[in-house]
Design a protein that fits this description.
Elements lengths: L11 E5 L4 H12 L3 E6 L4 H8 L3 E4 L12 E4 L8 H9 L3 E3 H9 L4 E6 L4 H14 L5 E8 L2 E4 L5 E5 L14 E4 L7 H4 L2 H13 L6 E5 L5 H5 L5 E5 L5 E5 L4 E6 L5 E6 L4 H16 L4 H9 L9 E6 L2 E6 L4 H14 L4 E6 L4 H6 L1 H5 L7 E4 L15 H10 L3 E4 L3 H11 L4 E6 L5 H7 L3
Parallel strand pairs: 1-2, 1-4, 2-3, 4-5, 6-9, 6-10, 7-9, 10-11, 11-12, 17-21, 18-19, 18-21, 19-20
Antiparallel strand pairs: 7-8, 13-14, 14-15, 16-17
Helix pairs in contact: 5-9, 5-10, 9-10, 15-16
Length: 453
């Protein structure tokens, strides 16, 4: 019997943009639940190849002929515009269509314990840590994460638990009605959509109001908009505070801390992830685990075995003595946290960060903050802006950002292409350097090429 009774008589589902990190996981979850799934994407990738291997029909390129009358539902992600040819045909044929988040919202109705993890930073890593706790506790959850742990970004469980990374961009998470909602932090991001800090706070407040009656909001104490978000909620409110972390240490590869339980007995956590920000993510995950009734010793064991999410301070290899790390950071707050962790872990190495800004809007909106975010580097390098969902904008550039960083007294260089950056790096890298490729686009390819992959 199908788990997703909320989808009613729907049998065949077509995904536009099926190769996306969240779309692919949801598509595979539905296949394993007995639905007939097809999809299309702009280009063939390892993800689309995997989906084909498990029996999903994939078309490369968006084509009106991909939409046939026997399709019961068309699902698209937020990047797919109304003029997409497949969306247009579905509309002409009268086939019901919905954005990915709306589909997930319907799926969550079938889970008694939906756990949605939101926040401006750390969502992916924290969702992975909560997943590790739930798996260790034997809760057998279904999971969807916006990043890969090894080769997977999802689990298909057989229980009432669904753990979901929940994004504030385009208010996607407003489709969700969780049993436990988590707000890690709030920062000025996605301003191209929200427009103001006030709108961002209201967005998170709406997410909190969507928590099911009798459920729980877990929120960092004292964050921006705390009082507005928590006022009048029809659910339990549990706070966590970084002051709870005791006896903290961090190395190049690990971090550790202690937490006091209600009886005053400390729980020691050895986390195989470096950096203060990872300890904060682990604290939030620990709080979720306790709210689920998991014993602290089991939570600590799960965290001690947690795997890093791909592209989150990911060790890539060494090139003639230079360590190469890749990180997804694309907001000034994330950049500073990552570089601070690197400086603490490698105080004697020359740190070189090559950054690919993500979207023209974000680069412009946070220009001054970006220019001050590289203080823990010895050399800051910049490649062209990754446009993502935006059209080309000649009024803002990586060269402008590089010049601004240089005005703060840091050595900074911009490049017109990855190839130019690679030539520079091969000439300038010396043994005992630390190179960090950074950004939400495809800048990681520079490290891959340097390593000969």
């Amino acid at each position: 019997m199908r788990k997703h009774t909320s989808l009613g008589a729907i049998n065949r589902i077509h995904f536009i943009g099926i190769g996306g990190v969240s779309m692919s996981g949801i598509a595979e979850t539905l296949v394993k639940d007995g639905f007939i799934v097809s999809g299309a994407d702009r280009s063939a990738t390892a993800v689309t190849s995997h989906l084909q291997d498990i029996g999903i029909h994939i078309d490369i390129g968006y084509n009106p002929n991909n939409i046939t009358p026997d399709i019961d539902l068309v699902v698209y992600n937020a990047a797919i515009k109304p003029d997409n040819p497949e969306r247009m045909v579905a509309n002409t044929l009268g086939i019901p269509s919905m954005v990915r988040a709306e589909l997930i919202g319907k799926m969550l109705q079938d889970y008694e314990y939906a756990i949605c993890i939101a926040g401006s930073h750390g969502k992916t890593s924290t969702t992975a840590l909560v997943t590790a706790i739930a798996v260790e506790a034997g809760l057998n959850p279904t999971v969807n994460i916006g990043g890969y742990i090894g080769e997977k970004n999802y689990l298909v469980g057989n229980s009432p638990y669904f753990i979901l990374e929940s994004c504030e961009y385009s208010n996607s998470y407003h489709h969700f009605h969780p049993y436990i909602g988590v707000i890690l932090n709030i920062d000025a991001d996605h301003m191209d959509f929200h427009g103001s800090m006030d709108a961002i706070i209201e967005s998170f407040a709406k997410f909190a109001r969507n928590i099911r009656p009798g459920g729980t909001l877990i929120i960092q104490k004292g964050i921006q908009g705390f009082d507005r978000i928590t006022e009048g909620l029809n659910c339990k409110i549990v706070t966590f505070d970084t002051d709870e972390l005791r006896n903290t240490t961090t190395t190049a590869e690990t971090s550790s801390f202690e937490l006091m339980n209600n009886s005053g007995v400390p729980t020691h956590v050895n986390l195989p992830l470096p950096g203060e920000y990872n300890m904060h993510n682990a604290l939030a995950a620990f709080t979720v685990g306790r709210e689920l009734g998991v014993e602290p010793r089991i939570i600590a064991k799960a965290l001690s075995q947690a795997q890093s999410v791909r592209r989150r301070y990911e060790y890539k290899g060494e090139l003639d003595g230079t360590i190469i790390i890749d990180d997804y950071a694309h907001h000034p707050t994330e950049i500073k946290a990552c570089l601070a962790a690197a400086r603490a872990a490698y105080p004697d190495r020359r740190i070189i960060c090559i950054f690919q800004p993500h979207t023209y809007t974000r680069t412009r909106n946070h220009f001054d903050d970006f220019s001050k975010a590289f203080s823990d580097t010895d050399i800051a390098l910049f490649v062209p802006i990754y446009a993502a969902r935006e059209p080309y904008d000649p009024t803002i550039s990586s060269e402008m950002l590089s010049d601004k960083v240089g005005s703060h007294g840091h050595f900074s260089v911009s490049f017109d292409s990855f190839e130019d950056a690679e030539v520079w790096l091969r000439e300038k890298l010396i043994p005992y350097d630390l190179l960090i490729t950074m950004g939400a686009g495809d800048v990681y390819l520079i490290g891959e090429r340097l390593l000969g992959r």
